[in-house]
């Protein structure tokens, strides 16, 4: 008996060691969440109810029906109330002639109406195309045209973006609206471009891909009906009878079929319509609800835009799966963020991109820890912000993920301690063994532009990275059925094909290219290095913009940093340039000297930015992701930089000094070697 008593603590200690060493319990949660989500998606496909409208209907008709699903502007709607409203919107959409499988474009700010329209479309078997409400002019009309939608539903506040003058400027001719239009405003347009001419030019460009050429021609000749959602129209729809369409209206949907179109952020060009499938919507929402894990009493707060998959699928749909509550904000603001979190009693906050940095940069208050938040969930939390954010706001758990709207998989890191702080993903020993074959990390040729994979000269296969070596992350696809996991970009076969890499590990295999450089350490942690194309070459060395930005962000005077490479006359490669926002009152000479000293300690000589651009406004997408291309266009052109209201400095000895037009002229004349 005494031996048994002494042995139990030792056995418990041994099990605890094994669990800590191999992350057994961590992997168990990951696997069970994934298994449950996968089985659920297969089950609902076979029962022909994979449309998430059925999840809402199930909650609405259960004892959960009176539980709040949505909170917006201090008003709440239960599952039963939301279901009834969505049926009314479905009824109205049917009256406008919307058919099964038809794509309808939505240009809305965050609100309950966004959800009524979205699920109203799903209730009648139609597909929404989410339009970024920040877009105007050419990018806006491009997203609508590539969706092929003939009906565009627009928030009343967005009416100015569709004036006749704007539409005419981009080739749309106004037509007379219907006389029987119910309350609300309507406009009709026809695109005037010569479809035959477009077909001819596209055929040339794609070298005989007639299918894609015909699709492009069809896009160019589309008619548009634009309906603006006034309060009068919303009131009219609310007065309608909530008619449920028969199951046949939603039948025949498979996991790989389109649930909606969600556009890429367009950081390097015009946005592309990514096909978001029912399988991803079903599996992703169920997985996240189990992985966080969500309780039915949880309230998730998001101020991220619903046109993005992070807030819509992993926010709204995840909460729907769990039967919990989501609190929506109109948009992100550090002034309203915490007051809305406190008033809603939110237990989980949702972030994207630089959200947490903006919150951290606001002045501290005695209310910083006066909230009910137990976890923060999102993607893009930089390592230099991670722990300071947790400490200041008293948040125990960070649920960080890595993925992209079009990607077939993702990375996950539920972190409660410093071990995985800053990592975008984490796997234990078991997960590494099981999932290792579904991913690849390959070496890239640093001298190619754009960067290309390095291949073995004997086998022709890609070179696989060693531990802690940066490389492009790839996800395995079925080479005989690419669309099973990767549905690609709607109507854009060339963009779709560019994301597929073949003959990676063996003849005929296929992988999805993420376009991101990662490194994987022996502890199973995944670290984001940079976007391919953001990393640049200087002094024959690769420089990671993300790692340099992290180093700059650790300086107390820097509120935000955006690092990129710039061309220098008479020099090979690109020199580092950092656009920085300095904290109020710290825009002075001593700050620049201190920054130079800090970077010389933190970075190797080749990675220290030679130029610093002090700016007041950082270019970001609607999801708080930094944009580099606008800064890159200015380069070190002093006139362009100063015309924007910014100031350019360059590294001279122990500090950064003002970069003047005379300095640029000396470089252009070959009189300066950097």
TrEMBL record:
One of its Pfam families is AMP-binding_C
Which InterPro entries does the UniProt entry name for this protein? AMP-bd_C, AMP-bd_C_sf, AMP-binding_CS, AMP-dep_synth/lig_dom, ANL_N_sf
Signal peptide positions (record): none
Kindly state which keywords UniProt assigns to this record, in alphabetical order: ATP-binding, Cell membrane, Ligase, Lipid droplet, Lipid transport, Membrane, Nucleotide-binding, Peroxisome, Transmembrane, Transmembrane helix, Transport
Q: Which membrane topology describes this protein?
A: Multi-pass membrane protein
Swiss-Prot/TrEMBL GO biological process terms = long-chain fatty acid import into cell
Does the UniProt entry include the keyword Lipoprotein?
Answer: no
Q: Which residues form the AMP-binding enzyme C-terminal domain?
A: 547-625
Lipoprotein among keywords:
no
Q: Where is the protein localized?
A: Cell membrane; Lipid droplet; Peroxisome membrane
- Single GO molecular function: long-chain fatty acid-CoA ligase activity
Which reaction equations make up its catalytic activity?
A: a very long-chain fatty acid + ATP + CoA = a very long-chain fatty acyl-CoA + AMP + diphosphate
> What Gene Ontology cellular component terms go with this record?
cytoplasmic side of plasma membrane; lipid droplet; peroxisomal membrane
Primary subcellular site in the record, as a coarse category: membrane
Q: What's this protein's function?
A: Acyl-CoA synthetase required for both the import of long chain fatty acids (LCFAs) (C14-C18) and the activation very long chain fatty acids (VLCFAs) (C20-C26) by esterification of the fatty acids into metabolically active CoA-thioesters for subsequent degradation or incorporation into phospholipids. The transport and fatty acyl-CoA synthetase activities are genetically separable and are thus independent activities. Esterifies VLCFAs in the peroxisome matrix. The VLCFAs are actively transported into peroxisomes by a PXA1-PXA2 heterodimeric transporter in the peroxisomal membrane.
Its name, as the record gives it, is Very long-chain fatty acid transport protein
**Native source organism of the sequence:** Lojkania enalia
């Amino acid at each position: 008996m005494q031996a048994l008593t002494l042995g139990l603590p030792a056995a418990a200690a041994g099990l605890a060691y094994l669990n800590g060493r191999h992350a057994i319990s961590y992997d168990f949660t990951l696997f069970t969440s994934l298994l449950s989500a996968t089985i659920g998606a297969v089950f609902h496909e076979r029962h022909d109810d994979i449309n998430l409208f059925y999840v809402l209907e199930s909650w609405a008709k259960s004892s959960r029906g009176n539980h709040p699903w949505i909170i917006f502007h201090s008003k709440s709607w239960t599952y039963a109330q939301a279901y009834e409203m969505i049926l009314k919107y479905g009824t109205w959409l049917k009256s406008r002639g919307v058919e099964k499988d038809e794509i309808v474009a939505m240009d809305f700010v965050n609100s309950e109406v966004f959800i009524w329209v979205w699920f109203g479309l799903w209730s009648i078997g139609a597909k929404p195309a989410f339009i970024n409400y920040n877009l105007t002019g050419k990018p806006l009309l491009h997203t609508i045209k590539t969706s092929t939608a003939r009906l565009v539903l627009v928030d009343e506040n967005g009416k100015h973006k569709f004036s006749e003058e704007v539409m005419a400027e981009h080739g749309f001719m106004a037509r007379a609206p219907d006389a029987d239009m119910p309350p609300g405003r309507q406009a009709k347009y026809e695109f005037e471009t010569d479809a035959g001419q477009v077909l001819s030019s596209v055929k040339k460009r794609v070298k005989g891909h007639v299918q894609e050429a015909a699709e492009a021609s069809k896009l160019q000749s589309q008619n548009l009906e634009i309906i603006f959602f006034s309060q009068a129209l919303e009131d009219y729809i609310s007065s309608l009878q909530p008619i449920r369409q028969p199951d046949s209206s939603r039948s025949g949907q498979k996991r790989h079929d389109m649930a909606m179109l969600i556009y890429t952020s367009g950081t390097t060009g015009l946005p592309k319509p990514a096909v978001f499938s029912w399988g991803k919507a079903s599996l992703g929402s169920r997985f996240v609800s189990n992985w966080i894990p969500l309780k039915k009493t949880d309230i998730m707060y998001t101020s991220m835009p619903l046109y993005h998959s992070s807030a819509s699928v992993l926010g709204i749909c995840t909460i729907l799966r769990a039967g919990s509550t989501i609190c929506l904000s109109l948009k992100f603001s550090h002034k309203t963020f915490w007051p809305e979190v406190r008033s809603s009693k939110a237990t989980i906050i949702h972030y994207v991109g630089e959200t947490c940095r903006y919150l951290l940069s606001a002045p501290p208050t005695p209310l910083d820890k006066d909230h009910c938040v137990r976890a923060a969930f999102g993607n893009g939390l930089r390592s230099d912000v991670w722990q300071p954010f947790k400490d200041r706001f008293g948040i125990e758990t960070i649920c960080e993920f890595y993925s992209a709207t079009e990607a077939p998989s993702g990375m996950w890191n539920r972190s409660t301690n410093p071990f995985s702080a800053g990592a975008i993903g984490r796997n234990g020993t078991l997960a590494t063994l099981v999932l290792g074959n579904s991913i690849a990390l390959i070496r890239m040729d640093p001298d190619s532009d754009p960067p290309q994979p390095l291949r073995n000269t004997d086998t022709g296969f890609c070179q696989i990275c060693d531990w802690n070596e940066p490389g492009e992350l790839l996800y395995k696809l079925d080479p005989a059925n690419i669309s099973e996991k990767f549905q690609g970009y709607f109507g854009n076969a060339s963009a779709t094909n560019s994301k597929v890499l073949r003959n990676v590990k063996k003849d005929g295999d296929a992988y999805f290219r993420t376009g991101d450089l990662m490194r994987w350490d022996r502890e199973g942690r995944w670290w984001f290095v940079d976007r391919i194309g953001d990393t640049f070459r200087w002094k024959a060395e690769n420089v990671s913009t993300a790692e340099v930005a992290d180093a700059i962000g650790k300086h107390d005077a820097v509120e935000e940093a955006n690092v990129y490479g710039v061309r220098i006359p008479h020099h090979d490669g690109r020199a580092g340039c950092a656009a920085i926002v300095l904290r109020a009152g710290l825009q002075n000479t001593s700050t620049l000297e201190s920054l130079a000293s800090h970077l010389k300690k933190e970075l190797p000589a080749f990675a220290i930015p030679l130029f610093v651009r002090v700016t007041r406004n950082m270019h970001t997408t609607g999801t708080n992701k930094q944009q580099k291309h606008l800064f890159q266009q200015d380069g070190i052109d002093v006139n362009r930089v100063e015309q924007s209201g910014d100031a350019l400095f360059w590294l001279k000895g122990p500090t950064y000094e003002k970069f003047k037009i005379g300095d640029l002229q000396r470089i252009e004349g070959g009189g300066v070697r950097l």
